[in-house]
């Protein structure tokens, strides 16, 4: 009886011992158990916990396990850049091949994947490369491939080393290997010796200088060497000016570069620098990111006039935007960066890969209803099979995608002020670390978030331990609820901040946070809307048929074709959303159509005029509401990340007379079958007969054919008709991108040939063959009949060439 009374008193004491308060930003103060900014740097809002402290569980662990057996975990078997034979990154002298960004891109996430999961195969493989990198350091401090020392017309290119430093940092966090600190210290001293006129000379280096700066700050926080601030100042001075605005619209450059002012703020302490980072982000999203999924249309570069949600983002840009958001969360404490990270992580990243993570594509768009190998240029800036799922292609993304899931897992929990802990991004996981008085504590986070709204925290501790636990209150949640051991806590404050729960935590304590998720629609491009619930955006469920187009049996290249209608708009009146939720099946992949644990039903009508265009892209959005008299149907919406084919920015539709009549995309004739001596992978022979009249020889808005990379050679392109064609006239519109800096010019000369039996014969022209720019060059000749006609062109000695249109009649 006495024992029972004591137990009740203890429970009551600890319940009364609990305080809860609201904060717009995390508390400031020290944390003795995690490394953060040392003085005189600004205090860290949050601190990253040592690798191994966080054990991802549930669906997060599933992504990481899939990654180990997917293309990332097996990339040494796939990528020629990771071939160990004569690899410059493995050479003690730095001599060899494949010495640029590919190895560090891959190693940056590959090693972390092993550390987070405790996968010894991956840890051992990563160490082979890391040991070699450390052994490559020269007496002057430079490390890595020799070729990078002279890559900029005899001057160094430090961009690949910026990435490799990240791999070394997390290796140190895992191992404590002090060789890393010595290498970094000597390397940064070498950077100080490089004269400013010889430093950061390539296209990539100055724009991504924040990567280098982050590593310098990381080293200072472990060594306290004040001369490192000279390196920070040098990097900020010689790098691109992100303070004055967006200096470059390349999608990945932006995702990495825009954070640099906020990084520099840690030393400079001018709060306007943080504002500059926010302004750059706002500018990009306002101009090119009026779409769901947390990204922006930059299918290489963001381009004026290309803002429709069919514009895509690189997989590289997604993982870099996640990392920038994670870094900015720790620097500023602003919870909006956690939300922005989740937006990309949940809604964009999963669909950039097949559900088994064995393949990826270069580009992913919010509205994308056909994934095939055909080039989509120029509507998507990059030509070639940018949408094809292929583990053997998409060079930069193929290697750089590795760090997306591991880095996310490493930021689920963070160290906070006053020896506390913070839950930055909710997900099933377990954290074991020291807190409060220094005694270890293990907290198990049990949840199906983001698919469900309840998050439970179970505490394990050998001794009572008092410390604050900081919980993010998302901006989309109006009224969260909290209970400790079943007792409700009073929650006050406003969305978009933090709830700080402090108490003397004891073994088997249970804290339950509920984040009610309501369905909401958000305005998007041209009056379209997205459907959101909690941190998830929803897409139309479109039937997916996977069609193999190359690759290997282990890692096939795949197209995805729609098997159901996709051209739906949401009704403007009488909309009725309904949530159907079910637990995640253990071991399943929730970011797939088959295993998605949640869906929303909605009322919609088809828009018959909304069709796929000539390139295989979803038709552009038009004025809304779109007029349609099609019957109202109930459609299913699934999480955007689970949909490889997706409509995520929905048109609004109406049957009223004042609604807007849509127009179907123009119908183009079937291209004439053509072949060539060479065709650049980003171009297509289909461009020759597209029927699109160029505005100039440098018209970048229509498809083109080029012999790119071939200079001064004799090249050919031919039409092959299904039956003989009687022809006496031809005209050609040459591609020439001078003076915009390109490498194509009109040819030195050309002629037309026709196939007679098995031989090619020249036609007999009545005039000269023209090579004029900005016009069709016409030639008449004696009539001939043939199934095949060929242009033979002699390219200028120092230039390539190409064709925008070629007609025979």
- Percent of residues in helices comes to 10-25%
How widely separated are the two ends?
105 Å
Which residue ranges are poorly predicted, with pLDDT under 50 across at least 5 consecutive positions?
1-15
Average residue-wise pLDDT: 95
Number of strand elements? 35
**Shape label:** globular
Largest sheet: 9 strands, mixed
Cα radius of gyration in angstroms: 29 Å
- By DSSP (H or I, 4+ residues per run), the number of helices equals 16
- The helix-and-strand class reads alpha+beta
| Strand portion | 15-25%
Can you walk me through this structure?
It is a single chain. With 809 residues, the chain is α+β, with helices and mostly antiparallel strands. It is built from 16 helices and 35 strands. The strands form 7 sheets. Strands 17, 18, 19, 22, 23, 24, 25, 26 and 28 form a 9-stranded mixed β-sheet that branches. A 7-stranded antiparallel β-sheet has the order 3-9-10-11-16-13-14. β18 (529-533) and β19 form a beta hairpin. α10 runs parallel beside α13 (315-332) and α13 runs antiparallel to α14 (336-347). Mean pLDDT is 95; it is low at 1-15.
Outline the secondary-structure elements:
Layout: H1 2-16, E1 19-23, E2 47-48, E3 54-56, H2 58-69, H3 102-117, H4 120-135, H5 159-175, H6 179-193, H7 204-207, H8 209-223, H9 228-238, H10 251-257, H11 260-268, H12 272-288, E4 313-314, H13 315-332, H14 336-347, E5 363-364, E6 367-368, H15 395-400, H16 404-410, E7 413-416, E8 420-423, E9 429-434, E10 440-447, E11 454-460, E12 465-473, E13 481-484, E14 487-489, E15 497-505, E16 510-514, E17 519-523, E18 529-533, E19 536-540, E20 544-551, E21 556-562, E22 568-571, E23 578-581, E24 598-606, E25 626-627, E26 633-639, E27 646-647, E28 652-654, E29 674-676, E30 705-706, E31 714-735, E32 749-756, E33 759-762, E34 777-794, E35 802-808
Parallel strand pairs: 8-12, 22-28, 25-28
Antiparallel strand pairs: 1-15, 2-7, 3-9, 4-5, 6-27, 7-8, 9-10, 10-11, 11-16, 12-15, 13-14, 13-16, 17-18, 18-19, 19-26, 20-21, 22-24, 23-24, 24-26, 29-31, 30-35, 31-34, 31-35, 32-33, 32-34
Helix pairs in contact: 3-4, 3-5, 3-16, 5-8, 6-8, 6-9, 8-9, 8-11, 9-11, 10-13, 11-12, 13-14, 13-16
């Amino acid at each position: 009886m006495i024992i029972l009374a004591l137990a009740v008193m203890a429970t009551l004491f600890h319940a009364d011992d609990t305080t809860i308060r609201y904060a717009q930003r995390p508390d400031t103060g020290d944390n003795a158990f995690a490394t953060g900014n040392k003085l005189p740097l600004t205090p860290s809002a949050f601190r990253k916990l040592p690798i191994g402290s966080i054990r991802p569980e549930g669906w997060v662990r599933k992504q990481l396990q899939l990654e180990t057996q997917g293309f990332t975990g097996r990339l040494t078997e796939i990528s020629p850049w990771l071939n160990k034979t004569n690899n410059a990154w493995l050479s003690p002298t730095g001599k060899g091949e494949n010495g640029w960004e590919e190895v560090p891109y891959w190693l940056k996430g590959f090693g972390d994947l092993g550390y987070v999961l405790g996968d010894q195969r991956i840890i051992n493989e990563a160490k082979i490369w890391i040991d070699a990198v450390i052994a490559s350091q020269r007496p002057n401090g430079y490390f890595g491939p020799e070729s990078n020392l002279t890559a900029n017309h005899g001057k160094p290119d430090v961009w690949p080393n910026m990435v490799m430093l990240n791999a070394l940092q997390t290796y140190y966090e895992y191992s404590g290997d002090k060789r890393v600190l010595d290498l970094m210290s000597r390397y940064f001293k070498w950077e100080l010796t490089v004269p400013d006129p010889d430093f950061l000379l390539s296209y990539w280096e100055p724009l991504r200088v924040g990567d280098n700066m982050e590593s310098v700050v990381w080293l200072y926080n472990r060594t306290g060497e004040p001369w490192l601030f000279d390196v920070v100042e040098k990097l900020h001075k010689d790098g691109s000016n992100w303070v004055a605005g967006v200096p470059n619209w390349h999608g990945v450059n932006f995702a990495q570069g825009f954070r640099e002012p906020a990084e520099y703020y840690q030393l400079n302490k001018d709060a306007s620098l943080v504002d500059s980072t926010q302004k750059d982000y706002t500018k990009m999203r306002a101009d090119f990111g009026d779409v769901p999924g947390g990204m922006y249309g930059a299918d290489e570069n963001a381009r004026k006039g290309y803002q429709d949600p069919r514009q895509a983002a690189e997989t590289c840009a997604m993982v870099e935007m996640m990392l920038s958001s994670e870094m900015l969360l720790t620097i500023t404490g602003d919870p909006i960066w956690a939300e922005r990270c989740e937006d990309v992580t949940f809604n964009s990243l999963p669909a950039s890969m097949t559900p088994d993570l064995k393949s990826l594509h270069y580009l992913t768009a919010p509205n994308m209803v056909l994934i095939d190998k055909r080039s989509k240029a120029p509507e998507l800036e990059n030509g070639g099979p940018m949408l094809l799922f292929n583990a053997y292609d998409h060079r930069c993304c193929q290697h750089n995608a590795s760090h997306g899931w591991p880095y996310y897992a490493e930021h689920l929990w963070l160290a906070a002020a006053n020896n506390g802990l913070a839950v930055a991004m909710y997900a099933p996981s377990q954290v074991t670390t020291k807190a409060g008085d220094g005694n270890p504590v293990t907290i198990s986070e049990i949840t199906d978030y983001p698919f469900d709204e309840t998050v439970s925290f179970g505490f394990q501790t050998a001794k009572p331990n008092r410390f604050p636990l900081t919980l993010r209150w998302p901006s989309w949640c109006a009224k969260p609820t909290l209970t400790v051991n079943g007792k409700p806590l009073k929650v006050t404050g406003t969305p978009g901040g933090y709830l700080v729960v402090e108490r003397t935590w004891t073994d088997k304590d249970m804290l339950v946070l509920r984040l009610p998720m309501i369905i909401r629609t958000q305005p998007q491009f041209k009056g379209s809307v997205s459907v959101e619930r909690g941190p998830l955006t929803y897409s139309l469920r479109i039937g997916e048929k996977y069609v193999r187009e190359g690759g290997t049996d282990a890692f096939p290249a795949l197209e995805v074709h729609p098997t159901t209608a996709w051209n739906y708009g949401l009704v403007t009146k009488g909309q009725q959303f309904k949530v159907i939720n079910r637990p995640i099946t253990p071991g399943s992949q929730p970011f797939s159509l088959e295993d998605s644990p949640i869906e929303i039903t909605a009322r919609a009508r088809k828009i018959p005029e909304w069709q796929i265009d000539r390139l295989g892209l979803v038709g552009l959005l038009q004025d809304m509401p779109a007029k349609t008299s099609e019957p109202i149907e109930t459609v299913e919406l699934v999480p955007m990340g689970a949909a490889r084919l997706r409509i995520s920015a929905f048109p609004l539709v109406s049957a009223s007379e004042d609604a807007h009549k849509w127009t179907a995309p123009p119908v183009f004739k079937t291209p004439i079958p053509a072949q060539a001596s060479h065709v650049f992978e980003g171009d297509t022979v289909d461009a020759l007969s597209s029927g699109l009249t160029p505005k100039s020889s440098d018209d970048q808005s229509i498809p083109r054919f080029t012999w790119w990379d071939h200079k001064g050679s004799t090249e050919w392109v031919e039409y092959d008709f299904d039956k003989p064609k009687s022809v006496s006239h031809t005209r050609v519109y040459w591609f020439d991108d001078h003076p915009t800096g390109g490498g194509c010019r009109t040819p030195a000369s050309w002629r037309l040939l026709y196939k007679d039996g098995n031989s090619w014969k020249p036609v007999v022209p009545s005039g000269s063959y023209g090579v004029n720019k900005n016009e069709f060059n016409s030639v008449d000749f004696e009539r001939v009949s043939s199934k095949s006609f060929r242009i033979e062109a002699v390219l200028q000695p120092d230039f390539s060439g190409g064709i925008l249109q070629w007609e025979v009649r």
